[in-house]
Amino acid sequence: MDFTVVQRFRCTPDEYWARSRGVEFDRALALASQVEFEPLERRGNVERSRVTQIGELPAVAQKALGARKFQYVQEVEEREAEHATHWKILPDVMADRVICSGTTKIRASAEGCERVVSGTITVKIPLVGGTIERYIGETVQTGYQRAESTIRRFVEKA
What we know:
The protein has helices at about 15-20, 25-35, 60-65, 130-155, and strands spanning about 1-10, 35-40, 45-55, 70-80, 85-90, 100-110, 110-125. The chain is an alpha+beta fold. A hairpin with a 6-residue loop joins strand 5 and strand 6 (about 100-110). Helix 2 packs across helix 4 (about 130-155). The relative contact order is 0.24.
């Protein structure tokens, strides 16, 4: 399953990039997205964090994955010169069957800038993979929507 989320902000890409970095921003974003967030050791230009969704997975996903909640390590490789990141989600369970990755790009727009998040979610579990993909996709996209006002508060400073 592929997805794209576009959000617009009243600031330049440089301002967005500078203001959307750091633990304070990450914690505020996690709270708004309804996930628990724990920073892990950084590896070069790759930020790492442990993320746990607060809500429980649907029953079919719990049974297939053997877990009540979706927990994962998120790796975000920063490409500062491009105002972009490449991200990967490494699930705690069935990491070989649940594959999530994508990019986030900040680009100029008429009003300021756009944050474009594109990703792919693949769940290779017979019979229920598509259902789990849709659930993860909906959860991820809802998290981005919930986080938009928090991002705005940080990046649209006067």
